[in-house]
From TrEMBL:
GO terms for cellular component: plasma membrane. It comes from the Bacteria. Residues 5-122 form the Acyl-CoA dehydrogenase/oxidase N-terminal domain. This is Acyl-CoA dehydrogenase.
Amino acid sequence: MTAETVEQFRARARAWLADNMPRIDPASPPAAYRDDERSWRRARELQKRLYEGGFAGICFPREYGGLGLDYDYQKAFDEETLTYEMPLILNTPTFTICCATLLDTGSEEQKKQHIAAALRGDEVLVQLLSEPSGGSDLAGVITRAERRGERWVINGAKTWSTSAFAADYGLCLARTNWDVPKHEGLTMFLVPIAHPGITLRRITQLNGSTEFCEEFFDNVDVGDDAVVGEVNNGWAVASRLLYHERRAVGQGSEFASGSGSEGGRSTPVDYVTLLATTGQVGNERVREMAGRVLVHRAVAEQLVDHVYRSVRDGTLPPAGGTLIRLFHAEAVTLDMDTALAIAGTAGVVGKQGAGLENGLRYLSRQTVCLGGGTTEMARNVIGERVLNFPREYAADRGVPFNQVRRGQSR
Ligand SMILES: Cc1cc2nc3c(=O)[nH]c(=O)nc-3n(C[C@H](O)[C@H](O)[C@H](O)COP(=O)(O)OP(=O)(O)OC[C@H]3O[C@@H](n4cnc5c(N)ncnc54)[C@H](O)[C@@H]3O)c2cc1C
């Protein structure tokens, strides 16, 4: 049998979507607030439809429930889905980060169980990496996992875990050896969020969202089957995870399905409407500002393709994915700053739909520079691992972790 071409696949997807997925107006997608349990139930239900229709996990291998096709098929599918309600909130971190990391580093059983379950809409996966003591120095985590008999017992605290309240499992980085330098004593675990030893609390953000969670681990015991990769080689798993995360945050992951707005607080600014509602259509300066944003959006889109291909053919090292992560943050920040500048006072005291949404969005402006590793850390990665600049000084390099000074005032 000859393989289906991208265009044949697109035509089949178009017909299937029309018969099976709910239609939406892409300019005002149905609300899918990530902090609302109902959004997650709906996303699981829609994912199940995609799976049963044979359109889930286009770039995941067939043996784990996917279709084993190239990124071009996913992109064609994404273009067709723009006018349909899609389970977009499952993309990150479940598919683009957690499943992608399991695919690279998990055991055969983990891949068969968890990637397949996520593609069926039965499992949501999240990342439990950052800790109250800091997130940038990921290799410095102090959550500990100790061997007790045949089990691992985890104690510690994690924070800023996106959507953990809605999740089934979390990839949790913990320290399993304190006598070696920080990168060498880590292990990645896949822990069930509903474990009785985990106390999960939701964090309320400035914009009112309660999507982020913090988790306290009190004697959370798991078996060897929870270890992802090798014991004490968790940094290799974490590095792979960070690689996928940077591409996901830069909107360049082949494991994301569907595009467009999630229908939460992130609907992209429509500058034509904004200029009209604020009475500035004829203002040359304002049109220039809006044009600058639109050019950034177009460049960000092109950069994704360019970097994806360059990493794949070896022209760029895997760390090259960081370029799209950084540019995405720059483009979104410019977008938010510009929208608020154009909205002016309407962004602060106006009504929703007449400019106020730009002020509300601005409240979470900084998230795009933090989530998925900060833009400062992205610049470090690009400097050291793409441009081959000398590595920055680190007082803890090569020092056994139990001798590293941490959080001490003297
Ligand atoms: C939208 C969003 C989603 C997130 N989702 C998750 C998640 O699902 N799971 C999870 O575990 N975490 C998540 N995080 C947390 C995120 O990973 C951390 O916020 C991030 O890694 C930074 O850690 P920190 O906030 O502790 O800042 P710190 O690490 O304390 O850094 C403070 C400041 O110092 C700078 N800095 C630190 N070290 C250096 C250095 N070596 N060189 C230059 N500058 C430096 C940083 O860039 C930053 O500006 C999320 C955060 C956001 C905003």
